[in-house]
Specification:
heterodimer, A: 525 residues, alpha+beta, FAD/NAD(P)-binding domain, D-Amino Acid Oxidase, Chain A, domain 2, 3 domains, nine-stranded mixed beta sheet, 15 helices, 22 strands, B: 417 residues, alpha/beta, Rossmann fold, four-stranded parallel beta sheet, 29% helix, globular
Amino acid sequence: MRKLAVDVVVIGGGSTGAGVVRDVAMRGYSTVLLERADLGQGTTGRFHGLLHSGGRYVVSDPLSATECAQENAILSRIQSEAIETTGGYFVTGPDDDPAFADKFLEGAKATGVPAREISVAEALRNEPRLNPRILRAIEVQDGSVDGWQLVWGAANSAKAYGAEILTYHSVTKIDTADGKVTAVHCTDLKNGEDVVIECGFVLNCAGPWAGQIAAMAGAHPVDVIPGRGIMVAMNHRLVNRVVNRCIYPADGDILVPVHTVSIIGTTDVKVDDPDNLAIEPKEVQQMLDAGEVLIPGFRQSRALHAWAGARPLIKDNRVAAADTRHMSRGMAVIDHTTRDGLDGMLTIGGGKLTTYRLMAEHIVDAMCEKLGEKRSCRTADEAIPGSESGKNYLVTHRLEDREHDRLDDQIICECELMSRKMFTEALATQPKGTFDDLRRQLRLGMGPCQGGFCSMRATGIALESDHIDIERATGLLRLFLKNRWIGLWPILYGDQVRQTALDNWIFQGTLDVEHLPQPESEVAL
Amino acid sequence: MSRVIVIGAGLSGLVAANRLAGKGVDVTLLTKGIGGLQLGQGSIDVLGYAPDRVTNPVLTLSAIASARPAHPYAAIGAEAVHTGIEYLKALLGDLLVGDAEANYQLPTAVGAIRPTCLVQPSMVAGNVTDGARFAIVGLRRLKDFHPKLVAENLSRTPLPDGGRLDARPVMVDVPARDGEVDSSGLTYARAFDDPAFRDRFAAALKPQLNEGETVGLPAVLGLKDRGAWKDLSEKLGHPVFEIPLPPPSVPGMRLNEALTALAKAAGVRVVNGTRAVSARVEDGVVKGVTMATAGAPREFTGEAFVLATGGFESGALAMDSYGSVTETLFGLPLQGLDDGPLVHGDYWSAEQPLFSVGVRVGKDMRVLDAAGAAVHPNLFAAGGIIGGSSRWAEKSGDGIALGSAVRAADSIVEELA
């Protein structure tokens, strides 16, 4: 058993937890972040990639709109490397009510969300694939964000301030004494070792899993109702700006260009278990129909991958009216002192990726107040490591990099222009990682071939690195192919069927990968 | 016009065209580009798994033919496969060795041991035997072959006939082209065509080899020079064998180039470069197939048509976003669509039924409808467009292609006569 002692344990390695651990560390507390899987493997990695301008909320939720607009500007600056400032349009579809755009413009003015109506002709000139029958178009400052880079950026910043980030550490128990949280127990899933962390405070940032964590500390049930949303990534950037329907927020009304793809989403279906999110065929059809409204011919373009995420919506009747100062419509800090008579723990729920920094500021402010300390938040003022230049991401960056090193290094993933050096360096920092862990940082296998060509190369290179043995290498290949398929089969149609046929020809036909020695148990992490 | 139009230039299309032309029939071969041979492993599979590992492919396929009426081998039959194999061997001379009664068991580029029937001579020394000692040699600048992955998987695999072999990885760094670190298999194959390159390569590798070792190399040992592997073996003083890579497949290209050259020499007119987009049928009889040629579409008319267009991988079959599957040229009736979901979510369990969808054929390779009647009296099918098999998992695709191609060609010859 390993023992640690810190001021604050942060539970959950999504955007909220990463933002919180950075804030906590920057305020001078010693801290550890615990995440049962990889950073950004839950809700954070399973979203649109949309950095809200606030436009989506100007009518339905004005406070969120203002927060989004402010945070959008802050994040574009401090995490420039993770964010592409694509800009966005709100367009009125042929059958949508054109009057909503007037409400939209009024709301934007009132909430401080920059917005400007442009002519349909200008919108079509800039985004030629847009439905030519749109009625109105409003330009906003939407962007796209790589959730994994955002989270890793925050985590790396926290590390620079002395925080420890423990991924694949699953919380098993939370100790309390005299009505106060005293320690968190967890298991290192990679080697089975138990770890006990004595602490003065626990910040529960487990999102859809926050209820499970709160229960471990003996708190009254925290009612988390995960809302499942599906997303479909389409090959290519069908648009270069975020395109939203100018309607009251609904399903499938946003198309976001992220890296080399564009992502349509999403749905909202209440589910019981955030660990079990199906991608229903009818929801896929719903997304394709919705895409067709924005981009005629959407169904003929190639879908690459689908996924489902769980929104961390907290419905909690126990939150006292006095606690609402830390609440906005989008986020809620639950004070377990007033609610459960339990000191030393706060739970945060709700929120959205765009406002993750602000959520962190709120919960850490609340913690400082409880501790009777005045330490102010500085997270908005300082760029995270890698974003010091303030230069925003461009989709052409990798191409530019490869132009420079193409004579010195191999391209291991042609779809995503990932070099061999990028892979080996990421592997060295995560020698126990799976290919999916590396994928989240490198986009390995996320392009059109969905791993058809790169996964065998990745396996060979990982084995040659001597971090892993042949059984694990082969197991990792099996795991990667299996996991890619989870997001492929629900959207398997059109050219992706053709690609899959080729991939199967390679793996089954030529490589006979099925007849490698079968593992006694499959590699899972 | 020609008397016969063959559509598709994979193994089945090339064999059908050669066989027809060899019997004096005027043939036009329509193809969008290079056919499927360059995507495969460059050996000839007949039957590798059923589902257990197969040692005598023709014998086992007879059993499949009687047990599984929907399988292409049920229509094709062992005799036609035999005929196809002998025909192909005769066509290609020293490019293929082996016989229909036995499978080789050859290493793959991930180190699995794969059964296959006819192989190129450059692959033979890889046939696994108890106690063999392999040096698996990678090229630092070729990213599609990782010798440690191959060697360590081979070493831990019990051999099909019992026993073990001992394989170890060796890495050498000989550039195919100066200053290039990311060379394709094709670039290396062209380099190995050059005797001077083989000298350099042998000089770099030889000191790293141990007495008694057989040398496994990525299948890039020459594209034009069919003796390159042998010359290298002599220079090294060790037996060598080639291990096929993911596409582009150099051994597949050798077969493709040889069969295409033979077809042209036999008088086949090859129309290459655009897709066949539509067919004209009058009174149930196929009259012509139109290619989307530059300038204006162009129709090719004929008396008989061989559909050798492949499956989903080539676009011969397609599934739209609503899940409906079509044969894209003639809109032919398909088998395999009515037995439940076409795809499922478990990658490592049963085959995805989608990839067994295809047309149904009779013994003469005419395309049949669900009732068993010919869809068009002059339309025949060959190769991957025929449904009912999991050809990649079974390792049966080439045998199906060969058997159906000779059957289709022979039926046509008989009827035209």
